[in-house]
Design goal:
Blueprint (H helix, E strand, L loop, with lengths): L4 H7 L6 H9 L4 H12 L2 H6 L2 H4 L7 H18 L11 H12 L6 E7 L10 E5 L9 H10 L4 E7 L9 H17 L2 E8 L4 E3 L9
Parallel strand pairs: 3-4
Antiparallel strand pairs: 1-2, 1-3, 4-5
Length: 214
């Protein structure tokens, strides 16, 4: 009994592995294989939380009820971690850049990050990495950029990526991607407030330069 995930989660949750905590949420006789399959497919909790219910139910042993329990538990954890009243308000490109430059400005590979905002421009959760690698319009899936915002019922997003060279001059590809993001945001009713290019010491706002917004 004391070795079961539900018992361990109830009495010593801090000692549980991620697999055991997931197993305690989904429950059932096949809970441990189901939890293992989730981690094999999605790698981490953030990816699981962003997955659509249809994706979760493709995992053996994860039906609609278990998928709903997972989504609810992960959303509760997110809300506990970042109470809405304590979340920072993004009022300017400077505010967004101050959050993102320390995270990605120094990296040697390009990373595409998204800030998710509510109707008062308060940050919902942490900045989310949605792409890792050289950015180009043929490889970046616009839907993946908006998925976290749609999942959170967000009102707006700010997109940012780094230039590992330190040269933050927007490329034609950066501008083309920005146009695609803005157009998709209009269709999805999620405002794209800005697209920033950052380095470790500075940034540029494509919206302020009138690039891709119009």
């Amino acid at each position: 009994m004391r070795d079961r995930p539900a018992y361990r989660a109830a009495h010593t949750p801090e000692a549980c592995t991620t697999q055991e905590l997931l197993a305690a949420v989904i429950r059932g006789s096949d809970r441990l294989p189901g939890a293992s399959a989730l981690l094999d497919q999605f790698r981490d909790l953030q990816a699981i939380s962003m997955a659509a219910q249809q994706e979760l139910t493709q995992i053996p042993g994860i039906g609609p009820a278990r998928a709903a329990s997972l989504k609810a538990a992960l959303e509760l954890g997110r809300r506990l971690k970042t109470p809405a009243e304590d979340a920072p308000t993004i009022q300017s490109p400077d505010d967004a850049a101050s959050l993102l430059m320390p995270k990605i400005g120094h990296l040697e590979k390009e990373r595409l990050m998204v800030l998710i905002l509510n109707t008062r421009n308060r940050l919902i959760g942490d900045p989310i990495e949605v792409y890792n690698g050289s950015l180009n319009a043929s490889m970046v899936r616009v839907g993946e950029v908006f998925r976290p915002a749609l999942h959170a019922n967000a009102a707006a997003i700010i997109i940012a990526h780094n230039h590992p060279s330190g040269d933050i001059t927007p490329s034609p590809e950066d501008i083309a991607l920005t146009k695609a993001f803005v157009q998709a945001g209009r269709m999805l009713d999620v405002d794209v407030l800005d697209h920033l290019i950052v380095s470790s010491s500075t940034y540029i706002s494509l919206k302020a330069r009138g690039l891709g917004f119009g």
